[in-house]
Amino acid sequence: MSIHFYEPRNGHGLPHDPFNAIVGPRPIGWISSLSQDGVRNLAPYSFFNAFNYIPPIVGFASIGAKDTLRNVQDTGEFVWNLATRPLAEAMNASCAAVAPEVDEFALAGLTAVPSRLVKAPRVAESPVAFECKVTQIVQLQRTDGETVPTWLVLGEVVGVHIAQETLKDGVYDTAAAGHILRGGGPADYFSIGPEQLFQMHRPR
């Protein structure tokens, strides 16, 4: 096969950077937080994932020192909310570049409801939410040690909210929950459903 090779430091030589498209689609880090002054914030992050099982640890990367980063630095708490196909437009609305005093819950027409263990609210319309307490905030760096303006926020999941309708015989049904994922293009998203499901058991 013919291979296109490039060194990222020299540019990719393509019409659009393929990195995000290759490492994807990715789950969306729809993060709600609360400022020290009590202002609610809600923003989606395209670099998000789970990193540990016991205890459960999730993380998202803030490219630039955004409101969410400042809030979690100040309070040590955040909530991850599952973005689903019915909530796609609201999720997209919450990523608008607005002033810190703007409440993205109101901007996106969403309902903020109290969490149980953290002060940051969760999205009532989302079928799943993880209440998280920050464990580490790491500024990323290059191979030469120079820091880049991106911060990885890791948090331990201390509380989980799951809509009963997403549980089938006690098992969470990912395919039926309507997850959406971030693609690599400037406006690309993916949805998943039962038609994408296949199973493989680990070798014994």
Q: Can you walk me through this structure?
A:
By secondary structure, the protein is mainly beta. It is 13% helix and 37% strand. It contains five helices and 14 strands. The chain has helices spanning 19-22, 67-75, 88-93, 104-107, 174-177, and strands spanning 26-27, 29-34, 40-45, 48-52, 57-63, 77-81, 112-113, 122-123, 128-141, 147-162, 167-168, 171-172, 180-182, 189-191. The strands form four sheets. Strands 3-2-6-9-10-5-4 form a seven-stranded antiparallel sheet, covered by helices on one side. It has a three-stranded antiparallel sheet with strand order 1-13-14, with no helix packed on it. A hairpin with a 4-residue loop joins strand 4 and strand 5. The longest helix has 9 residues, at 67-75. The radius of gyration is 18 Å and the shape is globular. The protein starts with 18 loop residues before the first helix and ends in a 13-residue tail after the last strand.
Question: What's the gist of this structure?
Answer:
This protein has helices at 19-22, 67-75, 88-93, 104-107, 174-177, and strands at residues 26-27, 29-34, 40-45, 48-52, 57-63, 77-81, 112-113, 122-123, 128-141, 147-162, 167-168, 171-172, 180-182, 189-191. The protein has 204 residues and is mainly beta.
Low-confidence spans: pLDDT under 50, at least 5 residues? Answer: none
Proportion in β-strands: 35-45%
Label the structural class.
mainly beta
The biggest sheet amounts to: 7 strands, antiparallel
Overall shape: globular
Alpha plus pi helix count:
5
Using only C-alpha atoms, the radius of gyration works out to: 18 Å
Task: Write out the strand line-up for the largest beta sheet, numbering strands in chain order.
Answer: 3-2-6-9-10-5-4
Total strands: the figure is: 14
Distance separating the two termini: 34 Å
Task: Tell me roughly what share of residues is in helical segments.
Answer: 10-25%
- Average pLDDT across residues? 96
Task: List SSEs in N-to-C order.
Answer: HEEEEEHEHHEEEEEEHEE
